[in-house]
Amino acid sequence: MKNTIKIYLAGLLCAVSLFACKKDFLDRYPLDNIVDQNYWKNENDLKLYANSLYPRYIVGFGTDFADGTVQPWGVNVNTLVYGDVITDNAAPLTYSKVGTNEYNTYLSAASGSGGWDFTGIKQLNFFIDNYKRAEISADVANKYLGEVYFFKAMDYFTKVKLFGDVPWLSHALNINSPELYAPRTPRAQVMDSIINILDKAIAYLPAKGSEETNRVNKDMAQFLKSRVGLFEGTYRKYHTELGLDPVKFLKYSTDASEALLPKYTLVQGDKNTVYNSLFATESYRGNTEVIMWREYSAALTYGAAFSRYFAQNLRHQFGATRSLVDEYLCSDGQTISTSPVFQGKGSIQAELQNRDPRLTQTICNFGTYALASTTIQGANNAPLPNLPGLSGNKCPTGYRLGKWFYNSPTDWDRVTNGQQAAPIFRYAEILLNYAEAKYELGEATQAVIDQTINKLRDRVGMPRLTIGSEPADPRLDAIYLTYAGKTIAPLLREIRRERRVEMAFENTRWDDLMRWKTGRFIDVPVEGIKFVQSQFPTVVVNKDIYLSTEGYILPYFKTIPAGRKFDESKAYLFPIPNEDILLNKNLKQNPNW
């Protein structure tokens, strides 16, 4: 399927004499080997260079054991799935220090660490500096230039989200380049530059269906532009201290989304299984919803040990939070605060009844998502969550994640050659981006809501959202008032609710909290399931677990009794490593770090 990316790392360059076929090739990126005068001569040279960039930027689930950690977030390399563990969506066994005054890695970290790493930018700029040397037509060369611009936009977007102002580098630098000691480029200039190169990528990249298999196309660049525009537009709107106009970026988002809206459709099926099934597959060929994905190849013995360790709940040993669970609507379209069909919180079985079907396709009810084999290590994690006090890997809240669970002993047994596919860009996000950007522009009509939010609700048989008849939610309104200082309009609240529910555990929540200036939502007390002793007869209260006055599990009762504290004076941006500040006197640390 040509609207996808399928990356086969093991065999990309092995047949090419320029590079040795070694297991660690794509980790080393040996640029020094290709600067001689014999390179940059033909299309194949440009293609080979571009090939080496794909695994850096299209990570998916990672590769091999996929056991690395990505800084500064402190999250497993598979950020697609595990990125939410630093947010209010999840509680890992060891609590995250990101966003709190306990985060201090930057004090002793080496230069170029903690996300302040320009290695990828150097590689991208090296291509930009040299690609014209190839004796090929501009049209052919520009295909690969479009890929490089796409990756450069992706890289810089991440840096701006982390640090705000960052140095914009247009050329590859050497040890004597004066730019190494330049101050940071203002955020506004960097973001304008990102849009500029994204527009070039859109112009240069082939249209969907005409690109070479496994390569980036125009739609993927439009998707990234939609995401970038929404993030920056809303960040500017709610971070008024920047003094930057949000409107043009919100329009960038709507324009890019409109380019994709007629091209894709949501996958349909049984409302009780369609959502979960979307994330448990080995292929997205022919899928009408997934715009970019990473495939793993059995033929090339290339894969990732994702499904096995996810089934064991090994990475981060986490559980979802009550904060997330309580946000799902009831089946009548009302909230748990107001719906007559809500069965209460007396047990997980009760509270998961009569809810948005995506809830039980995201969170395991007791007895569901049972492992298909008891031979795999960690099989005692299902069908019940493995609470503290029980043997094996832990689910500290009792809300075990069912989304991404691929119940395939065959794939588990592949270990590092696991073949579960990783969806990178999903059409559902475009619908959510469009609805939110249109709202922020004052253009969210009922037709817009029907075109976006209601398509997502229709798929799982939920009542449609009608402007002017939004459900009351005193619980969520109180959270906004307490932790954000004000309530928000009911329509915006419901658009944001839909985003949290639909995109849970797809690594969007942290960015959402940052751009909405709602980082203090991380301070909402972390609670788990209502503990029922008869369901866990050997678990000892006040020894293995601790409970709130309502009987909900408190996973951090001992480790952080006062709860997490998001520091709004500084935590919307990450700090630059101190060593880099010392090396470059023109760099200034982010405020209050």
UniProtKB/TrEMBL annotation:
Transmembrane annotation, as ranges: none
SUPFAM superfamilies to which the protein is assigned, alphabetical: TPR-like
InterPro entries: SusD_RagB_dom, TPR-like_helical_dom_sf
Signal peptide: 1-22
Domain of life: Bacteria
Alphabetical list of Pfam families matching this protein: SusD_RagB
Keywords: Cell outer membrane, Membrane, Signal
Family stated for the protein in its record: Belongs to the SusD family.
Protein name per its UniProtKB record: Starch-binding associating with outer membrane
Organism: Pedobacter soli
